[in-house]
Amino acid sequence: MFKAIRKLRESGVIGINERNINYVNPNNPRKLLRLVDDKLETKRVAQAAMIPTPELFGVVRDARDMKNLPNLLTRDDGFVIKPAQGSQGKGIIVVDSPLRGGWRMASGRRIAMDVIRFQINNILSGMYSLGGQPDVAMIEYRVKFDDVFGKVSFKGVPDIRVIVMRGIPVFAMLRLPTAESDGKANLHRGGVGVGVDIATGLTQRAMQHDKLIELHPDTAHPLENVQAPYWDDILMMAARSYDVTGLGYIGVDIVLDRDRGPLLLELNGRPGISIQIANRRGMRYVLQEAEKISAEKHPAAKRIEIAKELARAAPKNGAVKVDDDPSAGG
Ligand SMILES: Nc1ncnc2c1ncn2[C@@H]1O[C@H](COP(=O)(O)OP(=O)(O)O)[C@@H](O)[C@H]1O
Ligand SMILES: [Mg+2]
Q1: Do 288 and 157 have their domain in common?
Q2: Which domain holds residue 15?
Q3: Of 103, 225, 254, 302, which is the most exposed, with the fewest CB atoms less than 10 Å away?
Q4: Of 84, 116, 140, at which residue does a domain stop?
Q5: What is the pLDDT of residue 280?
């Protein structure tokens, strides 16, 4: 066990402690983390910078808003209810369409109005928020996934996670919902993570529950060599998320909408480290290089060129066969 961890460390895989001490703490001042720990705040700063996000239909803050709830849930093409301060997909309901006396969820199961009310009350009480403080429930547009990923996905919207070091995108992964994850792509919910090459936007190796896999567990579709569309737009949104928040080490979550293209879903100030397993590669080399280069303060377009160059150079310096779990997931 210890030998395995040491081996991983030597080969460039970072663990949770290293992430916190070397990357999160020095790059993400507590004051700025507020911008990303609350999804309403993130939407606000993104919109101000013309970064597109899923449309907000409404917010439920108290009993009075709760009375008005039926007026917010009128869309035939569904909606998503989520805690503004949630994480790891907890407390999120993805609703596909109305169904007599209720709605159909992404999983196909039915959900009734009183269950939705109950769930929103749980959100307001802080059941899903960091530290358990009272929270608010957001109701937003349900993203309609792009067909490219439709073939490899299952009942829900895939998202693309990009790790951005001081404005330079360094690592990426495509996350796919599964039957188990009920419309959410989060790895903790049983979603599949697929490494994506920053230089090309092509998918590489895949994993579920921190184990390597080759086929989607529900669709049996091969997961390697799928081209992520709008790749340069995705990198640009990721790079600009640094400029609009000032946070030096973030995980940027982007979804592709069939009609609206790439949309920013959320930003994470403490992004997980499992992305290294999906990529079968450690992040330390690219993180350190990006950190050095960032001193030159390049504009976003230039940072994307740099990101691609780094990705092309990295395998020689950071390649590793990851057979063992790193010390912690994320
Ligand atoms: N508006 C939406 N439309 C469709 N699916 C969504 C939407 N918002 C979230 N999801 C699904 O739920 C997952 C988690 O949502 P996210 O906003 O990233 O919250 P969390 O902080 O809990 O990860 C996403 O990866 C996606 O699969
Ligand atoms: Mg997320």
Answers
A1: yes
A2: 2-38+145-318
A3: 225
A4: 140
A5: 87
